[in-house]
Design brief:
Blueprint (H helix, E strand, L loop, with lengths): L3 E4 L3 E7 L3 H8 L13 E6 L5 E11 L2 E7 L3 H10 L7 E4 L4 E8 L18 E3 L5 E5 L6 E8 L6 H8 L6 H11 L35 H9 L5 E8 L8 E4 L2 E14 L5 E8 L8 E3 L8 E2 L11
Antiparallel strand pairs: 1-7, 2-5, 2-6, 3-4, 4-5, 7-10, 8-9, 9-10, 11-14, 11-16, 12-13, 12-15, 13-14
Length: about 325
C-alpha cells in the first residue's frame, strides 16, 4: 500500500527559542527536558497547581536552542499565554509557529512503503532530520503499521520537492488519523477537556508523559501522591458504540445511573460509521457491562483493548 498523507491542521506548533528554553519547559512541564537526546521526541503535560492537565504536548528538537511543541489547536493560545507567564528573566521566547511550519500525517503498512526521501525512524518517538531541514517523527501504533508526523517549513525553497511529493500521495481523512491515535491509546486534550484530568487518569505516565525523577513543577505533588499512595480510581480506556461521540461527553453506568462515571476524551468514526473513543472512567466500572453514553438510556458502549498494560512495569 502506498503511504497515505493527511494534513494535521487540527494541531498547532508552538516554538520555544533561546538558550534557556529547555530550562523553562523543565520547570513547568511533567517531562525531563535537561537530559533529552535530540533524536527523540517526548510527551509532556502542562498542569495547574491542582495537578489537572491544561495541555499535552509532543516535544521535538527543531534546531539548536529551539524546541517545538505540538498540541491541539483549540488550546494552543491558552497554553502559549500560560507558558509566557513563567519566562520572567529566562533567555528564551515563545511563539506560535503554525503559520511557518506545516504539519502532515503519514501512514504506511511498513517502513518499506515510505519513499526513500522519507525513511522513518527505526523506533516510535524517534526523530529524523531530513537533508532539506524537515523533521520526521515516528508515532507508536497499535499494530504493525508505521505512522509519522512530518514538519515542513512552508517558505523553505529547499523543501519544494518534498512538498510536491506530499501533494502527490493519496490522502488519509482526519477522522482516520484520529482513529489511529485512539487505537494507539494516545490521548489529546481539547478545549472541552481541559482541567478535567490528573495525568494518570489518561494513562499519561504509562506512555512516557511523566518523569517522576525530575524536580518540581506545578501540580507535581498531586501527580506524585496519585502515583505512590495508590489513590488512583480512574483510568482511560477504549470504548466503542453506534452513536457519535464528542470530547467532554459524560458516560453513565447502569450500576449508578444518577451520576456520571466518566467522560469522552477523543472520538472518531471508522469507515463503517461505527464510533470509537478514548474515555476516562472509574476503574470499578471498567469490567462491568452497562456503560452508556450521556445517560442510562443512552447508547450502550463496549470496552475495547489498549495496546499497553494499565499497570506500570516494576
Amino acid at each position: 500500500m502506498p503511504v497515505l498523507s493527511c494534513p494535521l491542521d487540527q494541531l498547532s506548533l508552538l516554538r520555544v527559542s533561546g538558550p534557556q528554553g529547555a530550562d523553562l519547559l523543565h520547570a513547568q512541564l511533567s517531562q525531563d527536558f535537561q537530559h533529552w537526546p535530540h533524536e527523540q521526541a517526548r510527551l509532556a503535560a502542562l498542569l495547574n497547581p491542582q495537578g489537572r492537565m491544561l495541555a499535552d504536548f509532543i516535544a521535538v528538537h527543531m534546531a539548536p536552542e529551539q524546541i517545538g511543541l505540538l498540541l491541539d489547536a483549540t488550546i494552543a493560545a491558552a497554553a502559549l499565554q500560560r507558558l509566557r507567564v513563567f519566562v520572567l528573566r529566562l533567555k528564551c521566547t515563545l511563539e506560535d509557529a503554525s503559520a511557518q511550519w506545516a504539519r502532515h500525517g503519514l501512514l504506511g503498512d511498513t517502513a518499506d512503503d515510505y519513499p526513500a526521501s522519507l525513511t522513518p525512524p527505526a523506533q516510535p518517538w524517534g526523530v529524523r532530520r531530513l537533508d532539506n531541514g524537515a523533521l520526521l517523527l515516528r508515532l507508536p501504533q497499535a499494530d504493525e503499521t508505521v505512522r509519522c508526523v512530518l514538519l515542513t517549513e512552508r517558505e523553505q525553497a529547499t523543501q519544494a520537492a518534498l512538498r510536491a511529493e506530499l501533494a502527490a500521495l493519496p490522502t488519509l481523512s482526519p477522522s482516520e488519523w484520529a482513529l489511529q491515535d485512539i487505537r494507539a491509546g494516545l490521548p489529546h486534550l481539547t478545549a472541552a477537556t481541559q482541567q478535567l484530568f490528573v495525568p494518570q487518569m489518561l494513562n499519561f505516565e504509562l506512555i512516557g508523559g511523566v518523569n517522576f525523577k525530575k524536580g518540581c513543577y506545578p501540580g507535581q505533588e498531586v501527580v506524585a501522591r496519585s502515583q505512590y499512595r495508590g489513590t488512583l480510581k480512574r483510568r482511560m480506556y477504549v470504548v466503542s458504540g453506534p452513536a457519535a461521540m464528542q470530547p467532554g461527553q459524560e458516560l453513565v453506568h447502569a450500576v449508578d445511573p444518577g451520576q456520571p462515571c466518566g467522560v469522552v476524551v477523543n472520538a472518531a468514526a471508522d469507515a463503517a460509521g461505527f464510533w470509537w473513543a478514548l474515555a476516562e472512567l472509574k476503574i470499578a466500572f471498567a469490567g462491568q457491562k452497562g456503560l452508556h453514553l450521556g445517560s442510562a438510556e443512552g447508547p450502550e458502549l463496549k470496552l475495547g483493548a489498549l495496546p499497553y498494560a494499565l499497570t506500570a512495569p516494576d
